[in-house]
Structure formats: structure tokens, C-alpha cells
Amino acid sequence: MQTLVKNGILVNEGLSVMGSLLIDGERISRIILSTDFNSEQEYNAAVASIASDREVDAAGLHILPGVIDDQVHFREPGNTAKATIASESAAAVLGGVTSFMDMPNNNPPATTNEALEQKFAIAAEGSSANYSFYLGATNGNIDEILSADKSRICGIKVFMGSSTGNMLVNDEHTLNRIFKESPLLIATHCEQEDIIKANMAEYTAKYGEDIPFGMHYRIRSREACIECTRRALDLAVKNNSKLHILHISTADEIEMIKEARKLNPDICGEVCVHYMWFNCNDYAEYGSKIKCNPAIKTPEDMLAIRKAVKEGTIKVVATDHAPHLPQEKQNNYAKAPSGIPLIQHSLQIMLELYRKGIFDLEDVVARMSHGPAECFNIKGRGFLREGYYADLAIVDLNLPDSNSTNAPAYKCGWSPFEGKEFSSSIIHTFVNGTQVVENGKLTGKRDAKALEFER
CATH number of the domain at 67-375, please? Predict the structure, then answer.
């Protein structure tokens, strides 16, 4: 099957150019840019000469490489009332996300290679988007880490703070071995446990269980993040590790990463869209809906994160998509779980920040597609290139969308953006050359594959 996607604006590798691309099976076989011709007539003649089985008219639309989200919690196995790989990957492609990497804090946790194989099998049966999975580190599974298949498994997830479950890695000998010997990228959740516990005790003594949600960023504080990130960076510099610090939430961490990268260029970092959209002043309006770990911090931190993304200090933007049931989030502070469902709306959020003049379109693509592909050494994805997989997000920058926010596809059924209208819409999504979204609707077709890594 050959599909010609024609006459859109291709946004790729720092340029936005009118063009067309031919999909042959799973891959992009040809890219035709208007700038390669002397006139519009020559370009139109070249496009008209291409034989294909079907055409998609992208006039007035922008063609982006599909978004790669390096941090999601799709809850399967173990918490399928909240989400499944099938449900959340469907939401993902509706939002232009064509690949995801899922976290290991399942029930049971994915801390063995056997458990990972079960998740790969579930995804092969029902995922709409390409997939990989992290192996969770514990204080006692170093043998599983050393035997992990580095061509299929995206990374090792190390909870250096007790964000969720019982996967806290706090044994210094184990941490040193992981940072020294892991064959895979090490992705860390960095919050210092003893600082959080002390803060929680202080605020519980003051408020009981009815702590105001606006205190979340003081309990899971800036200091807790900074101290733990410092430990991770020291270990990575000492052992020359491939370190990826997830969901950076403070200005200080950005500066620390800058300095550490001078000694170890294999250190990279990720921020999530909610840290660029919300700040601590928004707890008064949103409450538990924006309670997440690490906490959303100050307006100054938000601005510093935006600046780091704009300048390329931080090259990966993701979601930490983490759905919970509405009745769970309606609990008081002590009982309401942390996490926000975001994957259907992450690209729209970044396009909204583009509309506000904070980012260029090329920045959005660089951080959501190119950056993850390069950080994780993903084979054949993240760019519009001949020979690469045809993972595409085709968007209309001028078609407002409130349907996806008021009736999101997440299994949990809610979004913090309820009542909001985004300025842009995701019109079509292709995964491995198969059109999985057409005119904003799922087509029912799937051709998702396990991601491959060149390491």
C-alpha cells in the first residue's frame, strides 16, 4: 500500500517547508519539498507524477513526526480499572503520540524480564501506538538488570524517592552497581525520601489529613528534588553512566544538569508538559487534579523550565501520564493519589505554548520527537526521513478543539483541561504507515510495533 500525503507543511529538523511524502508500506519512501524546485509549477508537477494507492490532502495542515512519550503509566497489569495499554494508547494516537515507554510500577511490579515479556505480549495484542517498557530497579534485582535486552527495553527505572509502590532503591551499594554496570539508560525519579517524610510530618501536625492541596509543593519540596538529583548526577559522573533525569521540576536541577554534562555528556533530562503549563498558584483552582510527583512548583521554576526547553538545555518533553479514577482524586490531600492523565493533550499543550510565542513549531518537534529518539537511540523513528517509519501527526493549527478536553479518551474519563478549548487539533495520525486516526477519529486499524534501540 502506497499513500501520498501531499501539500502540507513538513516540520522537521529545524525547518518548516511545504511538501509531500510518499509512504510505502511501513516507511517513508520519498519526501518532496517545494524548496527543491525552481517554481511552484515544478513542485506540483513532481507531486502529480507520483503514483499511489491513496492520497491524503494535507493542504493547510502541518505534518510532524509522531510524538514519542518517554514516560507513561498505562496501569496494566494490575490496575486496569484505571487504564489499560489498549485504552491509553488509543488516547495517545488521538493526540498525535505514536510511541510510548511505560513505567514498571505495576501490580505486580515489572522488576523481572519475565514480567516485561508479559507486558510486551499485552501491547502486541492491543496497542495502537509503538511501545517499550522500563525494567524497574529494586535493592535486589541487579541480575535482572544485567541480563536485560538492550535492543528492546528502553531503560532501567530507578525510584530514588518513594513516589509510588515499594520500588524505592535506597541501598548505596545497589545504586553504585546500577550506575556502574547497567547496560541500559538509567532513568531516575529524584526526590529525597527523608526530606519528604519530615515535611509531611510537619504539615500533618498542622492540618491533620485535611492538608490544603496548595501545600503539596512544600511537602514534596524543591529541596527534596534538588538533593536527590545531586546524588544521581554525582553517581552518573563518577561512573560515566547514561543517566536520564525524569520530570525535572526546579530551576536548580536544570543548572546542576548543565554543570554535570560538562563532565559526562551522556547525562540528559526530561520535563513534562504540566510543569510548563501550571505553577503552584494553580492549586487553588485545580486542587487534586494537578497533584503529581514531583510537585508542580513556583512560577519562577515554570519559567526556568520553559527557558531550558526553548534553549535545548532540556531536549525531551513528555507527560508522566498517570490516570486515577475520579473518586480517588476527590479524596482529601492525604488520600488523593498523585498523577495526571495527559497523553491525549500533550501535543496540543505544546502547540498552545507555541501560539503564546514561548516556543517555535520547530522547538515543539525537536523536544517531543527528535529529542526522545536521540536520547534513547531509537531506531528509525522521531524524524521525517526517507527510510524511516511513517509515524506522523498531522495537525490543524487553526481548528479549535474542546471535544477532547470535555470527553477525553482516557479510561479514567477525566482531564484537568475540562472546559478548556485548545487552539489546535490533531487531524490524522499514522503509525508505521497505517492511518490510525482520520479526521480526529480512530479508524480501528492498528499496526503498532515494539521499539528498537541502537546501542
Answer: 3.20.20.140
Architecture of the domain defined by 2-63+388-400+422-442: Roll (2.30)
Helix 251-263 to helix 222-239 angle, to the nearest 10 degrees? 10
Per-residue model confidence (pLDDT) at position 278: 98
* pTM beyond 0.90, yes or no: yes
Digit-coded pLDDT (tens) for 296-350: 999 999 999 999 999 999 999 999 999 999 999 999 999 999 999 999 999 999 9
**CB atoms < 10 A from the CB of 37, how many?**
15
Separation of alpha carbons 45 and 239, rounded Å: 56
Instruction: Dig out the grid coordinates for 142 from the structure.
Output: 541487579
- Ordered by start, the domain boundaries in the chain are 2-63+388-400+422-442, 67-375
